[in-house]
Amino acid sequence: MLGSAIWPVTLESGDLILRPIRYRDRTEWNSVRSRNARWIGPWEATNPLPGGVLPSYAGMVRSLNQQARQDTALPFVITERQAGVRSSPAIVGQLTVSSILWGSARMATLGYWVDEARAGRGIAPTAVALATDHCFRVLGLHRMEINIRPENMPSRRVVEKLGFREEGLRRRYLHIAGQWADHLSFALTAEEVPEGLLSRLPSAR
User: Fold this and answer.
1) Tell me, what DSSP letter sits at residue 73?
2) Were both Cys, which of 27, 37, 46, 99 would link to 109 (CB 3.0–4.6 Å)?
3) Does domain 3-200 have CATH number 3.90.25.10?
4) Angle between helices 57-69 and 26-35 (to 10 degrees)
5) Would you call 196 exposed, middle or buried from its count of C-beta atoms within 10 A (0-12, 13-18, 19+)?
């Protein structure tokens, strides 16, 4: 176990900040999620057990923090400094590096969502690039994988912009919006981006 060697950590590029999710983010996080219910809903993971429900916000944070302590996840919120505003950076999304495997694999899976009101401004590509560069360059992971519903075109544009390779279709891969759903698998290895992913974007935020 690497423990505090990998978590907590904060990553920044310009006005964009990835920081650990916290219990005290609940009110703001719930507000953003509620405002984006229709935007995120079609891609939302669900519990396949009969009558199963997703954990509460506190339960989610508790589980993510436990995974972080076990060196198997990096649970971030995506925040952004607001021009001319002196308050804390606002939550504009969430990004989680999960299923981290060490040993001979040294790989992980990445998932994210961004506030619809801020979509199309480069937030998701920048956040994914920041997290992937950290995993490759600092943690020494070798492979990053992102799995996306075929019809989720905004998310597909993110991975395509960053040069993730499409590796094929995973049938009924995850339980999404109440049913087992197919996903396209995209991946990158560290050798494919020696210059780092952030450098692939037109300009750092």
Assistant:
1) -
2) 99
3) no
4) 110
5) middle
Phi first, then psi, for residue 16 (nearest 5°) are -95, 135
pLDDT of residue 5: 65
Q: What is the pTM of this model?
A: 0.94
Domain residue limits, the chain: 3-200
pLDDT tens, residue by residue, 67-122: 999 999 999 999 999 876 667 899 999 999 999 999 999 999 999 999 999 998 99
Neighbours of 40 (CB within 10 A): 18
Name every residue whose Cβ is closer than 8 Å to that of residue 158 and which is 6 or more positions away in sequence: 112, 124, 125, 128
Is-contact 78 91, C-beta < 8 A? yes
> Starting from the edge strand earliest in sequence, which strands make up the sheet with 107-114, in order?
11-13, 16-20, 74-80, 90-101, 107-114, 143-148, 179-189, 165-176
